[in-house]
Structures are given as structure tokens and as C-alpha cells.
Amino acid sequence: MSFKRSFVAALLLALASVLPAAASAAAAPPLGPDTARIHYHRPRADYDGWGAHLWDGAKTETPWTAAATPTGRDDYGVWWDVPLKAGATRLGVIVHKGDQKDPGPDQFLDLTKQKEAWIVSGKNELSYTKPDVSALAFGDLSRAKAHWVNRNTLLWNVPPTEGATFALHGSATASLRVTKDGVTGGETVPLSVERETSPELFANFPYLKGYTILKLSIPDQARSQSWLRNQLAISVRYPDGSGDATSLQIPGVLDDVCRWRGALGVTWAGGTPTVRLWAPTAQKVRLLVFDGPRTAQPVETVDLARESWTYVAQGKPGWKGKYYLYEVTVYTPSTQRIETVTATDPYSRGLARNGERSLFVDLDDPTTMPTGWLQTKKPALAALEDAVVYELHVRDFSASDATVPAAHRGTYLAFSDASDGTKHLRALAEAGLTHVHLLPAFDFATVNEDRSTWRDAGDLSQYPPDSDQQQAAAQKLRGVDGFNWGYDPQHYGVPEGSYASDPDGVARIVEFRRMVQSLAGMGLRTVMDVVYNHTHANGLAPASVLDRIVPGYYQRLNAEGAIENSTCCSNTASEHFMMHKLVLDDLLHWARDYHVDGFRFDLMGHHMRANLEGWRAAFDTLTLEKHGVEGAKILMYGEGWDFGEVSGNKRGVNATQRNMAGSGVGTFNDRIRDAIRGGSPFTDRREQGFATGLFSMPGEFNRGGDGDRAKLLGLTDRIRVGLAGNLAAYAFTDARGNATTGAALGGTGYASMPREAVNYAEAHDNETMWDKIMMAAPASATLAQRVRMQILALSLPALGQGMPFFHAGGELLRTKSMDADSYDSGDWFNRVDWSGTTNHWGMGRPGAEKNKDRWPFMKPLLARKDLVPGPAELALSRGAFSDFLRVRRSTPLFRLRTADDVNARVKFMNTGPMQTPGLIVMTLADGVNGLPSLGSKWKRVIVLCNANPGEVTFAYPGFTQVAFTLHPAQAAGADPVVKGAAFDRARGAITVPGLTTAVFVAE
């Protein structure tokens, strides 16, 4: 705060004490009928740009981009009068300025209590009585706007005005208060202003650059470090008597002073456990030991000893199989009190139902292992570039499969049964699939693990295919059925209990291991979808774990100390040493103890590149001989999206697509995805792309013509770059005839090696590929043409350099009834029929919450009986997909290891402005001068992807010198159409049927 603003704030407060309220602003009028009123106070009265996002009970909901402006202003601040829906019981409100929220979380006014509420800037609590805000002009300890970044340095965004005095305050009893005289209660040490900026300091805190640097004297450093267990604040007093005060964010000093490199959680030696918890800010920690998962009282209570910022105790052999909680006494910023709370172990390795208690379990104990676990052998993987990944939800896999025993449906055990599903996976593995990627299977918070509470919508087939009754039935069961994607982590290091036969005890451990073992027996490695970028809850919420133990450390905080939630939940801060360590220890645990072969990082861009490099380096130390794991063969890939508070490297170099170049860690390639499909997840779903008829088969959104032709050529260039591993330096000729590179093509290419590109057309997010085709293809497109579009879309990731990634069931024309986000849509909309009998098209309109605006064009599509695929269509698609896998596995040219190899061996024809639109011609060569032979049977390969509805012939004089034949996998394969592709050597011409990808080879 500047001297001028400090003076103005003090003056306003003085005037307020002697003038009537009417002198500052008119009082709010009486509240009208069927109306709610939300009051909002900012201590500096800076209301410009602040508005309200209103929903739920609001008669007219406000778009995020058009916030409601205040209705009026009074002595408290501004207010909004909100007309209500008839019968509304609550009103949702977020006060925000652009994307800056205040205080952050969604807030709800309980209209059954009253229709008027008060919000104070920075405070999460919505008050039903008018708060006293008179002292806020001198500071606000409910916010934490200053940072204690190392043992002797604090940073605060206030000017170092001449004559200002700064101080650090601490109270072991949380008795600090702000008054007009400054901060009272507790102890105080002075701070001095450091006038010289330290580049090294801000290298670790780039978002704090420009803040005033404040220093502790050497004698005060040791004393103040003991205050880390206290309530903390910082204050400034200016010569005119005005001032400011705020609480502190302390992750920086905790990393500097309190980091711990040793083992945490429960470790075992000779059958005896040692318990250790990192809790540097806790004043006291006790261990509560329970006989059972829900017994009322602990059988033992143990005071843990403080040791190097951890709390530790040696346990007893008899604790094995018992349950425990920590009782932590700690200052909690969200309540501004010293709280005594119970918490589960962040390093839990076993749990009670719903994660209510941690379990004493030794994962080396034979009782935690399925028969033959230690002898489990993984299928061979020569290089990471050989991976082909199949994304699958544990419950989806078997919940609707009648060939699975009823007790095993939706569980880990289903992977061990002889069923339609396991038969399908075995067949794909034999064709060339290498990895099954499991959606979150760690302990998550959004499914009640007590199966007796679950409700099932049952068979909804009695409703018409275009009805809204199915979604209405499914929506009623949200949160009370057994389905959720699970991106809501509660305990990172324990398998999810709702997928186990018993969520208590070791069943979930044994059965997860048995699933991994069974997949290995099918010839498949296991990938886990991990969600370290956020936690499901924070503060004192029941599902909160990390923030109960070290409040304000593990979560990433905004400029005022509130938890960032750009990921949708409570963001974590892996740039903090102990959060990085927690993730590192957890990854190694899953790799060593569960033989997990790969990790997909949800919203990976919210981690730092240094995190991923550290985790990769740790994996590379694991060996089969010492650890039972080939660490160098562990896959790492994730979502490299750049958004939120970390965007643009604000918190450090984050793990985004471009930033990860050279790391060897893969990122999802949305460039090829959107080019194949058309549009993006944020545009009209009817927008067409390469595989959905753009230009050649105009639809409702794209009408054809020169504009669509140019657009198609541009998208085709993006696909070419994707097929070349999405390399930044890949050189080719673009649609305008210019020599260019992947990076120069509008930033399309960003990878520096093929493994860094994860090529895909669909995933669990957004609509399935089949659903996209149904919306984007012209109404006149036949069922047969739509099936061929699906096959064409599947072929592109399968035959490109990089890592192909497929959504489970895509080869079976999987539909979710055009649901854009089926994370909580229940079993009905997420079903897969592995027998290949039906794809369930026409199971009702998707959930209204995310899809209702598109119902008008969805309804007639769902009603069309001529668009319902049968067994023949599903068998064709599945067979063609398997053939693509066989082509890739049999031909090393599709699995190149280096950028140099790709640039030398992969070339594109039919480029430039005179190209045939909708045709990709890609050549791959083994016999390249200066490069070693790959040992491939076929020295020349040519791939032709024809997105046009009719056949296309491509001729090149040089082809007359080569004896091309259709790849044996396709010549003997399942697709009769591709067998019509022909090579005329005399003309040097290859003819490819419409909506077909053909692969020709020559020895």
C-alpha cells in the first residue's frame, strides 16, 4: 500500500467515526419480495471491475464473462439484489474481477435461513449478520499477502517508504489481532528493508519479483524459526500513523529450514513398525491406534517425539493389521486458531473404508500378495517408442459385462476372469497393444465405498432413444451410485476401495496387484492415471489430508493466501520441496510395490518441468535386479496444458507442451486431435475436420467452398506434423508451397523427440470419436460412411511417429450418447459391450448440465434408426483397428527413436497448393544413406489416408521402380474395402478407396 493510499484509508476511518453513515453512502433500501441481497466489502473500497457470478437459485444466471454489476453501495460496501427462481432454496455466488475470484471457492446463500448475506474480501465464510469491518483499514490477518521465503528473508508487496517500520509477529496461542494501534498479542521482532535485489532469491519465486525484501537479523533468525509452529503476521507502520498488516505464507522458509529427506509414513524392520510424520508447524502430534476400521475408541494413544521437524515413534509388532490416525495440534490459517484435528497419513499404504483411517500394513508381507506375485513377468518392451496405450476405466471395463461374475463386476478382480472383456484385451495385445492406461485407481473421494448405500438406475431401455428420461434418472443418482472417473484424490498411495471386494483391510492391495498380474499375463503393461495437481479437499473438510497436517504448505496459494483452484479443486504446489518429495515417494511406491509400468499426469502443466525431470531420474535408477522394475521402461506422459496461475511460467518453468521438449516426457497432442475431429472442445461440435468430412462432405456447420478447402489443407498440414512425431524441427512443404517446420506452422510442432508426442483422436474427456462423427458428419452420411470415418480416425495415431493413444472401445464405435463430460453420468452412459453386439447408440439424451444447449441437434440424430451400428459394423471397425496395430508392430519404421531418424526417413508427398485435398501420402524409408538399417523386412513403406468419400488415385513416376504391395496385415485383414486399394506399377499409381487408410510396402 502506498503512503498516499495509507493516508487516505486512515482519513476515511477517522471520518467514519464522526460523520453519520449517510455522509459516506446511502443506506440500502428494504429488501424486496422474491429477492436475495449479497453485500460485499473491500477494505480499500476499490470496487471497480468487481462483479458477481450468480447461479443456482438466481432467476437469471449470469455468464462468467458478464458478471452482474453491483445494484448499489452503502457504508459497508456494494450490494447486489438478485431476483430468485420460484422455490429456490440456495443461491450460488462468486465475486470476481475477470478470472480473479474473491475469496475463491463457490459460496452459497442458504435461502431457507434468510435472503441477505455479507461477504468480506478474502474471507471464505459467508455471514448472515453484518460483520464489523472497522479495523480492516489497518490490516487483515485473514489474508496472507506476505511470504517468508527463507530463514532470514520475507517478501511483501508494499513500498519501503522512508521511515516505515516493519515487524514480524508470532503467537503460540493464536492471539494476534489487528487494531488501530497495529498488531497486538504475541511476540515481535523487527525487520529491516533490504534495498538491493537478489536475482537468486527471485529465481525460486518469480511471481514475487518486485516485492519489498525484508530481513531478519542473525540473532532473531533462530528465535523466529521456533515461531513456525505459531500464528504469524507481519506489519508496517508509516510515519503518519497509518499502517498495514497481513498473515504470512511460509512454504519457502519450511523448504529452507524444515525439509526432510528420509522415509515417512510407516516403515518396517524385523516386523516392527516405525511411524514418522512430517509436521513442522505442529505443536503436538499423537498417534491413535484402533483395533478395527470403525471401533469407537483407540486402544493406544502415543505421544510422538519431535525430531528434525518430524514426529516419530517406534511401534509394536502387534500393530500390524490395526488402524491409526494422527491427532495434530496446529495453527490453521483458515480458522485463525490453534486446532486439534485428526488426520490420516499422507503416506498411507492401506486404509479403512472411505479412507477414514490408515492401516498398519507391510506391503512385503505375503498376505498382501496374490499367488505368484513375485514371479510376475512383464511383456517385453524394447523401447518407449514401442508403446501403444489403451485408456480404460476400471468400472467401465466390467460393470455391464454379463460374462463377468456378478460379484466381480466393476472391480479389479474382473481383470482375472475369463470374460468378453478379457478376451477383447488379449486379442488387442496379440495385435500390438502394449499398455492399458487405467483412469484413477488410487483412493478417491467421490464414491462411497460402502456398497450397501449404492443406488442403480437399472435398465432404462424402455425409454425412447432420444428421450431425456435416461439422463434424468442418471442425474438423480449422482454421488450415490458406484460411478465416478475419480479425479478427486484423497490418498495418493492406496488403491481405490470401491473397486475392491472389501474396502477394509488388505483386499484392495491384493486385488490391485492381481489385476496388474492378470494384465501382464495378457501381454499388457499397466499405466496409472495420477492426479497430483490437486486434492479433493482442503482445510478442515472431512476428506482433507495434507492441509490438516501442514496447513498452507502443500496447496498452492494465491496473492492473498487463498488456495488456488484453477484445476477445479484445491491445487497443490509441487514446486515446494516436500510436495515434490511426496509425489516422488508415491511414484516409486507404485512402481516398486505394484509393478506399475507408466504414469499419466493429469493437468501436468500445473507441475514444474524440474518436477518431471526429477521423477524421471528417480525411475531411471530402478533395476529389475534390485527393485523388480525396469525403471528406464516406465512411461511418463501427461496433459501439458498451460493455464491458471502457473501459465506463462509464472511460478517457474512449468511442464507444458513446449517446455517439456527435450525431457523425454510425453504430452498430449491436441493439434492432431483437433485436426482429425474438427473444431475443439470449446467450439461448435458440428465443426468438421479431416476425418469428419470437411470440404469433401459438407455438413450443417461447414458448407464447403474455398474457405473450407483452405481450412482442410491447413488441418492436413497439422496432421502431417503429428504423424512426424509433432517435432518442432520437422521440415516439410506446407499447403502454400513453402518450406517450413513443425514449429513454424503456427506452433504446431513442439516435441524434440518422437516419444514426447502422444497422438490421439479421442480420450475420456469430451465426446467419443463416434459421437463427434455423428454430430459433424452431414445428415446424408450413411452408417457405412460414418464407420469408415471412425476407422480413418483410428488409423492416424496408429501409424504416426510418437506414442499412439486410444480410448477404450473406440474400435467398437463407442458412444456416450454425445455426452461431453461423462465423469459422473453413471454406468448407463458409460457402458461398453465387449462382445461386439452393440455400441448402445440411442440410449437417450446426455446429461443436461453439460449438454442441454446441444439437445436440439442431438435429438433427431438419436432417433435415427438407420444410424444404429450392428455386429457387422462393430466387427469391421475392431478388425481394421487390429490390422493397424499389426502394421505398426511388424514395421519398425512406424516406431522411430530419434528426431534425426524421423527427419531423414519420413517424408510427405501431395503437398503444396495443388495437392489433392483430403489425401495424405506419407513415405517411410529404411535404406537411407548415412543411417543404419532398422532390420525391417520392408525397406519402403507408403501410407495413403484418403478422407474423401470416393476413391483417389495418386501417381508418382518414381513408383514405377518399386514393387509395392498392400501390407500383409491389411491384405489378409478384416477390412474388405482396403483390399480394393491397388498399385499400378506401370503407371506408378496407387488407388485408395474412399474414407480409407492403406499401407503399401516394398522389400
Structural key phrases:
seven-stranded mixed beta barrel; Immunoglobulin-like; alpha+beta; TIM Barrel; eight-stranded parallel beta barrel; 22 helices; globular; 1003 residues
List the SSEs and their pairings.
Elements: H1 3-18, E1 35-41, E2 51-55, E3 72-73, E4 78-83, E5 90-97, E6 100-110, E7 116-120, E8 146-150, E9 153-156, E10 165-171, E11 177-179, E12 182-184, E13 187-194, H2 199-204, E14 212-215, H3 218-225, E15 231-237, E16 243-249, H4 251-257, E17 265-269, E18 272-278, E19 282-290, E20 300-303, E21 305-307, E22 310-314, E23 323-332, E24 337-343, E25 358-359, E26 389-392, H5 394-398, H6 420-431, E27 435-438, E28 442-444, H7 469-476, E29 489-495, H8 507-521, E30 525-530, E31 534-535, H9 546-549, E32 570-571, H10 577-594, E33 598-601, H11 609-619, H12 624-627, E34 635-638, E35 666-668, H13 670-677, H14 706-723, E36 731-733, E37 739-741, E38 757-759, H15 769-776, H16 783-798, E39 803-807, H17 826-830, H18 848-851, H19 855-863, H20 871-890, H21 899-905, E40 906-909, E41 919-925, E42 940-946, E43 952-955, E44 965-966, H22 968-971, E45 982-984, E46 989-992, E47 996-1002
Parallel strand pairs: 1-7, 8-16, 26-27, 26-39, 27-30, 30-33, 33-34, 34-35, 35-38, 38-39
Antiparallel strand pairs: 1-4, 2-5, 3-4, 5-6, 8-9, 9-14, 10-13, 10-15, 11-12, 13-14, 15-16, 17-18, 18-22, 19-20, 19-23, 21-22, 23-24, 23-25, 28-29, 31-32, 36-37, 40-41, 41-42, 42-47, 43-46, 44-47, 45-46
Quick rundown:
Residues 264-348 form the Glycoside hydrolase family 13 N-terminal domain. This protein is α+β, with helices and mostly antiparallel strands and 1003 residues long.
